[in-house]
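We store sequence, tokenised fold; for instance:
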Amino acid sequence: MPLPSSARALKKPRLDDEVRFLRSWIEKPLHMGAVMPSGKLLARTMAHYVDIDSDAPVVELGPGTGAITSALIERGVDQKRLVLVEYNPGFCALLRDRYPQAKVVQGDAYRLRDTLWNVLSAPASAVVSGLPLVTKPMLTRLRLIRDAFTALAPGAPFVQFTYAVVPPIPKSLPGVSTEASERIWMNLPPARVWVYRKD
């Protein structure tokens, strides 16, 4: 039985996003966090850790087509608070079209200090990352979280998901507390959200 036209219209953006992701992954597999956009449950779990009552910026690293961005907005984060750091120029154009009130920054999230040096007007209330951290050397991961903590307000979360069984950044960093969500089995592939806060 064919889908009604309204249901087809709702499925089309998701299918288009999956095609964009797959094409980008084929071109540069190590730059992509996933072959497909994050599932809704994973995106909602990440958004859950963001303070919706703050006026401070929320930085999203590697938003891609905006799956987590949409979850942040659905949770109640004002679009004007969003700073979306995306490397892929095609995704940047898509994000500017979909989220016209957000600030889209085309830049390298792994050089976060340089990318954000003149962008934030106040310390961020959260950094939410969809980057493929486990594909990077540990020193690159540690530099990223160090730079993220520099951009964050004291005690604000760095939120990262991973498909790996082990945490993407060690739990034993001095002066950093960590927590993890339950494994999200409904995501493909299953994922877990890790949250890091500087004490």
Observations:
- The first strand starts at residue 58 and ends at 61.
